[in-house]
Specification:
Elements lengths: L10 H7 L5 H4 L3 H16 L4 H4 L3 E7 L18 H8 L2 E3 L2 E2 L5 H10 L25 H6 L4 E6 L18 E5 L8 E4 L2 E4 L4 H15 L5 E7 L10 H9 L4 H26 L6 E7 L18 H8 L15 H4 L3 E4 L9 E2 L3 E2 L3 H8 L17 H4 L11 E5 L19 E6 L2 E7 L9 E7 L15 H20 L8 E4 L6 E4 L6 E3 L3 E2 L7 E2 L7 E8 L3 E10 L8 E5 L4 E5 L5 E3 L3 E3 L2 E11 L9 E10 L12 E5 L5 E5 L3 H8 L6 E3 L4 E7 L6 E8 L2 E6 L6 E4 L4 E11 L4 E10 L1
Helix pairs in contact: 8-10, 9-10
Length: 750
């Protein structure tokens, strides 16, 4: 690209100095020379204006499973995306911008850290492979430490327990939707559960707007990873009907409706930024996390798009690249990327420099005038802000950019963890793309081979030219092997989730069964499931998980399962290398172990079947593990037996107790039995604790809104709920030691 010289010079500086460009005139007399020196000194020494000092805001949109071809700006002739087009038309467009791993969690890991996702500990989308190591710094960490208010809204997918969620990764506000549910679902909001109605995309849009309004006078960073348009496809009935009337099939109509609602919410956010007068100080970024997927319709019990529906969708694409979601080919790994900053980025600029998701982290810091902190893990990306300013570094053309496809849900025991086989690794260099392929894990021969493509001459990747370009192949093959060896040698890749347990703000920690470290005996993953394990047919069958105990103390383990009455009576041991507890299966759904006394630090937790009961299996299916911290006498400042009683003037009342929001979010769904009240009826909420003298204050939330705060007894709130439907109230306790715990309760207003 030619340099865009002069586009970003400070206009006031140019105008101010212009009268003095002809210095020879002033050198004619000492007086004039003195005047010149004084004026230049006044200019160079003046205090920066408030505008110059003000840090820019950032809004980063990350869209799920959204290929470039479903954007009208890119030439789609069937679906209109005016809000996305608006960002592209008012900003710069990068045409060679790559994601990470062609999948959700890997791209998020690279985006948030500026590092190749394998180095962050993320190497898949589930099965315990989507947890960013806790020693990684996110862009939010650095912005927050430099005066920014930070918020994350939408699909998190970077860790599934309290210590991995956004509010512990640099974000002041975190609002995250339950995966793959579009209507009438739950969100977790700063470790509190809230039931929400309508399309989840609208809920997220509302909360982003609220965040911007509340922080309009502060520098802010809003990370908006919309769950749309990840399958299953769904949209409001009236939107669906509009596309049906236009002649589209149900499947494509719901997909287009989902895109329309997402684009509408982007527009609502952009409009509010404009209305608040923030546009000239707000950087807007837009990209996707992977390529398009021919997804399920309505639910995972339905089918994916058939060939006719795919053709119906793709006929509107200006071109169809090879591959899609989860693929190393361009259709799976390249993303639309637009960046807008009114007055700082000239509209309509287009850049073809090799770049990608790892570059967003250093670019945002560069724009904000911030440095990567000393001691931070190495950032693999580089700022493209100089490129936009027309000051491309001389070595950019020699850049290498690596990517890979992940293992997806291949069982861990199938992988050689000392030297894992990787299906595809790509190395981009100039117009070339070298692919290192290994089909061992997919039933192919145990042979690594290479392919080379010229993306300028062959953008659809039809012709392997490795034999025609031996010099390029000879240069790049050792580099791709060296990169992968370094990744493996770092010890940070291909690890399982490490569950931190024992924090008092998460007294109960969910341990996702899909993150099993090791299986022993015949126990196996249930068919078509990532979180259910069956075949507990033989004593000695076991599951192992890695935990990190935050503080020495007493713990209990809760098992969740399904068990027919005829199979009750089996006995399990729960143990680490330091202690063992027993657990008897006497109930058909849940059981609690004896107490484990555990030291702090990392250790392996084992759940092992010791003996069968009355039947042929220990349990029919194991589906949940939750680890509970038990308060002891030494644990001062920790609330015990805390909860709230919710009641009306009549006898209608219900008690709710403090529990782990992340455990309820991961496992609980909407299983809570609500208190039923009439519209407008007075509802009393009375918090309680076994040691109320340890309460510093209590905050009541009605949905997302704070409805009241109490700092002294009596601990009692009143609400009048006017809107029919399911409401969530949260009482957040703050103890004298600063520990925060919330209890949520559902109220059904009729």
């Amino acid at each position: 690209m030619p340099k865009q010289a002069g586009l970003f010079e400070n206009a006031s500086r140019v105008n101010y100095l212009h009268p003095f460009l002809d210095l020879n005139f002033f050198m004619m007399t000492k007086t004039c020379t003195f005047l010149l020196m004084m004026l230049l000194c006044l200019y160079s020494c003046r205090e920066p204006s408030e505008d110059m000092d003000k840090k820019p805001n950032f809004i980063l949109f990350l869209i799920d499973d959204f290929g470039y071809a479903d954007i009208s700006y890119e030439g789609n002739s069937q679906i209109r995306t005016p809000s996305i087009d608006r960002i592209a038309e008012n900003g710069a467009h990068f045409t060679r911008f790559y994601q990470s791993g062609a999948a959700c969690a890997p791209t998020r890991a690279s985006l948030l850290t500026g590092r190749y996702h394998l180095a962050t500990g993320v190497w898949g989308v589930h099965a315990g492979r989507d947890f960013i190591h806790r020693d990684e710094s996110t862009m939010a960490d650095i912005l927050q430490n430099n005066g920014y208010v930070t918020g994350a809204f939408g699909k998190w997918h970077s860790g599934k327990t309290w210590s991995y969620f956004s509010w512990n990764r640099g974000f002041d506000v975190g609002v995250h939707s339950r995966l793959y549910q579009y209507f009438d679902t739950q969100v977790i909001y700063n470790n509190k559960i809230i039931n929400v109605d309508g399309p989840i995309t609208n809920v997220i849009g509302d909360q982003v707007i609220r965040f911007i309004e509340e922080n309009k006078d502060n520098p802010f960073f809003a990370y908006v990873p919309f769950q749309s348009i990840h399958e299953p496809y769904n949209c409001p009935p009236e939107v669906f009907q509009g596309y049906k009337e236009a002649g589209y099939s149900d499947h494509v109509a719901r997909l287009y409706g989902m895109i329309e609602v997402m684009d509408l919410n982007i527009g609502r956010i952009l409009n509010r930024v404009d209305q608040l007068g923030l546009t000239e100080n707000t950087v807007i970024l837009f990209l996707s996390d992977d390529g398009p997927s021919p997804g399920f319709d309505l639910s995972y019990s339905n089918r994916r798009m058939n060939e006719g529906e795919k053709a119906e969708r793709t006929r509107a694409w200006p071109k169809q690249l090879r591959g899609g979601k989860g693929s190393i080919w361009e259709g799976g790994s390249i993303t639309p990327f637009y960046i807008q900053w009114k007055g700082k980025i000239k509209p309509g600029m287009e850049f073809s420099q090799l770049s990608g998701v790892i570059d967003v982290f250093p670019t945002m810091l560069d724009i904000a005038g911030l440095k990567i902190p000393e001691g931070n893990l190495p950032v693999h990306g580089r700022s493209f802000w100089p490129v936009i300013q027309g000051e491309e570094p001389d070595d950019w053309n020699e850049r290498r950019y690596f990517d890979n496809t992940n293992f997806y849900l291949i069982e861990r025991h199938q992988i050689n963890m000392e030297k894992p086989e990787m299906h595809h690794i790509a190395l981009h260099y100039q117009q070339y793309k070298l692919i290192r392929a290994d089909n061992t894990l997919y039933g192919g021969p145990d042979t690594v081979y290479y392919e080379l493509y010229d993306l300028v001459a062959d953008p659809l990747e039809k012709t392997d030219i490795i034999k025609d370009k031996p010099d390029i192949a000879a240069m790049l093959i050792p580099e791709i092997e060296s990169w992968y060896s370094d990744i493996i040698g770092s010890g940070r890749a291909f690890t399982q989730a490490v569950y931190e347990v024992g924090n008092w703000e998460e007294t109960s920690t969910p341990i996702n069964l899909d993150a099993v470290l090791e299986l022993k005996g015949p126990v196996k993953r249930s068919d078509n499931s990532t979180t259910r394990y069956d075949n507990w047919t033989r004593p000695g069958s076991a599951m192992r998980f890695e935990i990190d105990v935050a503080e020495e103390g007493a713990y209990q383990v809760e098992l969740g399962y399904a068990c027919e009455p005829s199979n009750l009576g089996s006995f399990f041991h729960i143990y680490t290398s330091r202690d063992t507890a027993g657990i008897r299966i006497e109930d058909n759904s849940t059981a609690l172990s004896g107490t484990l006394l555990l030291p702090s630090g990392r250790q392996v937790l084992t759940v092992e079947l010791v003996s069968l009961g009355r039947g042929t299996v220990g349990v029919d299916v194991m589906n949940r593990i939750v680890m509970h911290r038990i308060p002891e006498e030494k644990d001062n400042g920790v609330l015990r037996d805390a909860g709230m009683e919710v009641y009306t003037a009549g006898e209608n009342r219900k008690k709710f107790f403090v529990s782990s929001a992340s455990a309820d979010f991961m496992f609980g769904g909407r299983q809570q039995e609500p208190l039923e009240v009439r519209t407008g009826e007075k509802v009393t909420i009375q918090p309680f604790a076994g040691n109320e003298d340890q309460i510093r204050k209590i905050i009541l939330y009605d949905g997302f809104e704070v409805s009241g705060t109490l700092e002294d007894p009596p601990w009692k709130f009143s609400l009048y709920l006017e809107k029919p439907g399911l409401h969530t109230v949260n009482v957040e306790f703050v103890s004298v030691s600063g520990v925060m715990n919330a209890v949520h309760g559902d109220i059904l207003v009729k």
